[in-house]
Design goal:
membrane, binds adenosine-5'-diphosphate, amino-acid transport, globular, 4-stranded antiparallel sheet, binds magnesium ion, alpha/beta, 8 helices, 6-stranded mixed sheet
Length: about 250
């Protein structure tokens, strides 16, 4: 008999009816979405709709008021969540490149693997080289952040996150602060990561890019998931709000 092994894989990220307020301002109003292993979820929506807050809740930079968040095996909303373990599994890159200016690129990348994971320095240097090769910056190992262009700094920030071997990467408008000619090189790195099977949640205003890379698009509006589906919702929005956002009118 042909015995098939049924492997039920759990999603990497689950948000279930997440609520979050800052004082009297309701920012997340029952947000739910799920990201399967290897998938790319693109979060879109106008400024103030709650995208960054949703991302920050996944990494527990913000604590939610109610609902549930699970990331790999972590119950993120639990009071006793192991933040160190959670943040090893979740890499996050923001709009402003947050490299340490007084450290070389190598030191930026090896800091966490050495201090958090206890990696030996020579092994960490090799790791830094490998991660920089992934983002096309092999020659910048000994440079300081200020010697790099904005696009290169963002790529180095991505390499630094990857050095912790995260299971999911969160990107929050990582190209928004860049000149248009530098945006492409950063998006290319993200595209390659996706092709390599990295699970990601990404906030971006680059709609063409989103169309190409997203397995799932989630449109947030006023703290809610207003519309969600495959990238095709960008071409055929069902709600006037998404239509207006993508500029097609409805
Ligand atoms: P987006 O990323 O979609 O632009 P945000 O999640 O950054 O939206 O913000 C959603 C709303 O929450 C905004 O009105 C913003 O001003 C507010 N907000 C975000 N962070 C805080 C905070 N730490 N304290 C108070 N208000 C906040
Ligand atoms: Mg934001």
């Amino acid at each position: 008999m042909n015995q098939e092994r049924i492997v039920i894989e759990r999603p990497i990220v689950v948000l279930d009816k997440v609520h979050k307020s800052f004082g009297s301002l309701k920012v997340l109003d029952g947000v739910s979405f799920t990201v399967e292993r290897g998938d790319v979820l693109v979060l879109i929506g106008r400024s103030g709709s709650g995208k960054s807050t949703a991302l920050r809740c996944i990494d527990r930079f913000e604590k939610i008021d109610s609902g549930e968040i699970r990331v790999c095996d972590h119950r993120v909303d639990a009071a006793d969540v192991d933040l160190r373990a959670l943040r090893q599994d979740v890499g996050i890159v923001f709009q402003s490149y947050n490299l340490f200016p007084h450290l070389t690129i190598e030191q930026n990348i090896t800091l966490a693997p050495v201090s958090v994971k206890g990696m030996k320095k020579p092994a960490a240097r090799e790791l830094a080289k490998a991660m920089l090769a992934k983002v096309g910056l092999s020659e910048k190992l000994d440079a300081y952040p200020e010697q790099l262009s904005g696009g290169q700094q963002q790529r180095a920030a991505i390499a630094r996150s990857l050095a912790m071997q995260p299971k999911v990467m969160l990107f929050d408008e990582v190209t928004s602060a860049l000149d248009p000619e530098l945006t492409g090189e950063v998006l290319k790195v993200i595209e390659r990561l996706a092709a390599d099977g990295m699970t990601m949640v990404m906030v971006t205003h680059e709609m063409g890019f989103a169309r190409g890379i997203a397995d799932q698009v989630v449109f947030m509006h006023a703290g809610r998931v207003h519309e969600a589906g495959s990238a095709s919702i960008l071409s055929g929005p069902a709600t006037p709000e998404l239509a207006q956002f993508v500029g097609t009118g409805l």
